[in-house]
Amino acid sequence: MDADAPPAWNREACRTYTPADSDRELRYRTYRHESGDLRLKVAPASLDGEDHPGYALTVTTYPGLDLSETLRIRTVLTFDRCDRIATQFMDLFSASYDGPGSLEDALEYASHRTREHR
C-alpha cells in the first residue's frame, strides 16, 4: 500500500518533466489496483494525442494483456484536480469491487460517478 493512494491501490509511477517545446513543468502519475487488473493514469491530455490543455484521467483494464482497454474518464485543467478525481475514482471502485467477476461493474460505477455530467 502507498501512503499517497487509498487502500488496495499502489502508486506505480510518478514523474515530473518539462517538454522540449515548453518551459512549463508537467506531471504524470499512475496507480495500480492490488488485483493488478486495473491501472489509473493522471497525465497531460496531450499525451493521448489530443490537442487539449490540462490533464486527463484514464483507466486501463487488464494492463499488459491483449484484451486490455483504455477509457478516458475525465479531462480537467490542473494536475492536482485530476489527481483528486483519481482518488475519488479509486475510493468508489474499491467500495464496489468484489473480486474479478465484478471488475466491469465496479469500473462502470466509479467511471459514471467521476465523469463530468453535462
Enumerate the strands of the largest sheet in spatial order, edge to edge or round the barrel. 1-2-3-4-5
Strand content: 25-35%
Using the CA coordinates, give the radius of gyration: 14 Å
> Distance between termini?
35 Å
Mean pLDDT: 87
Shape: globular
The low-pLDDT segments are none
Counting DSSP H or I runs of 4 or more residues, the number of helices is 2
Share of residues in helices:
25-40%
* Helix/strand/pairing category: alpha+beta
- Biggest sheet layout: 5 strands, antiparallel
Secondary-structure element string: EEEEEHH
Number of strands: 5
Which key terms come to mind for this protein?
118 residues, five-stranded antiparallel beta sheet, alpha+beta, 25% helix, globular
Structural notes for this entry:
The model has no long low-confidence stretch (mean pLDDT 87). Helix 1 packs antiparallel against helix 2 (103-114). It is globular and about 45 Å long. The protein has helices at 79-96, 103-114, and strands at residues 9-17, 26-33, 38-44, 55-61, 69-76. 25% of the residues are buried. By secondary structure, it is of the alpha+beta class. The protein has a five-stranded antiparallel beta sheet with strand order 1-2-3-4-5, with helices on one face.
